[in-house]
Amino acid sequence: MPCNKKAAFTCAVVSAALVLILAPIRQIQGFPNGAPPTACATMTPGHGVGGQQSVSPFMTELLDGETVLMDGSVRLELRPQNGVNSFKGFLVMAFDKTDESKPIGTFKPPVDGKVIDCTGGVMNAVTHTNNLDKKSVTLDWTPPKNFMGQVVFRTTYVENKSTFWVKTESKAVAVVLEIPSATSTTTMAPQTTTTTTAAPVSTTPMSASTMSAPTQHHDHADHAGDHDHPTTTVSPPKSTASQSTSFWIGLIALSMLSSLLR
Ligand SMILES: *[C@@H]1O[C@H](CO)[C@@H](O)[C@H](O)[C@H]1NC(C)=O
């Protein structure tokens, strides 16, 4: 609406009010819709203050233990150490422990959060989609193809605008070709299996060629949390169709948001 002379004052007041109301929103709330790609490199929110130097009250827990199969995935939980604190925002990435220059692997689109593309990669980071107080965010991460080695997750937790912890590091998770287990006695696989508990092998009906199938490995050898995995990793083709759909939906949502904020 064009401002005529009479309404000019009202117009100016309204515009100024709008600017005053809208401009600081990003400053006050940080980024209510998640960290922008510019935050990828430092993993630091642009809040104008430094991160906390104290030990983070939040942790990034490895829910499936510290060893996963190369073709498996890692389930993470972002949560407070003590169950008291909550966080509004987060940004998490996975790094090769020996090369922390860039994030690796990909995340599945989570229930509470969104996958973003950082530093030239694709779907290699997750950030929040709202600034509500959170006590638990569960994420699934898949290693890069043919990756073997130690991976650490680094998470920036934002408790509020002035209080955040940058790059809180998880325990390392080892991505391996084969989980060491007692079944290796029957196969020809010369993998370096330093099995500590050689549980008596009763039945191993699977052939050596299917050794990488994670379905039937014995849980006698108590590696990494003795809860029996329901092995949902059986279906090999990841639903890339739905992933790319949500990618595009995310992209459209992002551009709508950024045009709104402009
Ligand atoms: C932010 O969180 C810290 C730590 O819990 C608290 O001391 C501080 O009062 C909070 N600040 C605001 C603005 O809520």
TrEMBL record:
Domain of life: Eukaryota
Basic and acidic residues composition bias: residue spans: 216-230
Cellular component GO terms held in the UniProt record: membrane
Biased composition (Low complexity): 187-215
Domain Reelin per the UniProt entry, residue ranges: 25-190
Record has Transcription as a keyword: no
Signal peptide location: 1-30
Record has Signal as a keyword: yes
UniProt protein name: Reelin domain-containing protein
InterPro entries xref list: Ferric-chelate_Red/DefProt, Reeler_dom, Reeler_sf
Region (Disordered): 187-242
Biased composition (Polar residues): 231-242
Keywords per UniProt: Signal
